[in-house]
Design the sequence.
């Protein structure tokens, strides 16, 4: 499979790492504000929006219509471009594109780590997140997207009342419609691949699973099998 559009290669890490902004239980979004962007559909349309964001609970694209937060249909989205970032819909979630390759892509999956939030020790016993936001954590862990169909203004008023979210970031490879986590074990579990050929490639090319360049080369190699 070849992508019919260019994706800007992102050399830096996930944007939340480099910014002071922290998503919260009341504002579980990738971006601090809803910002302009556009969606490329599988049908070839390119639709611009004044206000877009990616929800961390559901992994879906949210946009604003007449002041109300709406949810886009992931099945129609081929690519989301928001700010300087590009996102793909894979396995029911939007994933950030770290590198586009000839036949594939290196992706970053970002989810809410509710287990870490429940058990976090901040030096004073059990985390205040778990003790004060148990109900919120249950909702977050279930994927309940409570911000859809709500007024953006109302949600913004509540955003600072929430607790900070713990995020889990996993890099991986796009392969035939699926997300393959960047580990030797997960790559070798891909159905139907020549495991011996992959093992030899990993050894010969000295592939490091924590390097985006290496993952990009591995991603394209998998499509040759």
Sequence:
């Amino acid at each position: 499979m070849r992508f019919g559009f260019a994706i800007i290669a992102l050399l830096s890490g996930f944007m939340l790492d480099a910014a002071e902004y922290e998503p919260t239980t009341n504002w579980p979004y990738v971006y601090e504000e809803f910002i302009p962007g556009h969606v490329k559909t599988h049908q070839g349309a390119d639709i611009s929006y004044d206000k877009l964001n990616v929800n961390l609970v559901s992994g879906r694209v949210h946009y604003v219509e007449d002041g109300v937060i709406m949810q886009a249909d992931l099945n129609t989205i081929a690519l989301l471009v928001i700010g300087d970032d590009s996102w793909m819909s894979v396995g029911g979630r939007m994933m950030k594109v770290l590198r586009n390759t000839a036949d594939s892509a290196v992706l970053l999956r970002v989810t809410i780590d509710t287990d870490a939030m429940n058990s976090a020790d901040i030096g004073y016993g059990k985390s205040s997140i778990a003790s004060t936001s148990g109900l919120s954590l249950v909702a977050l862990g279930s994927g309940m997207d409570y911000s859809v169909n709500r007024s953006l203004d109302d949600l913004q008023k509540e955003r600072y009342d929430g607790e900070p979210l713990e995020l889990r970031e996993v890099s991986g490879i796009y392969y035939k419609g699926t997300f393959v986590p960047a580990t030797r074990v997960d790559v070798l579990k891909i159905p139907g691949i020549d495991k011996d050929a992959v093992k030899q490639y990993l050894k010969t090319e000295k592939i490091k699973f924590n390097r985006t360049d290496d993952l990009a080369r591995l991603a394209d190699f998998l499509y040759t099998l």
The beta strands are 35-41, 46-54, 61-65, 68-71, 77-82, 85-90, 93-100, 105-112, 167-175, 178-181.
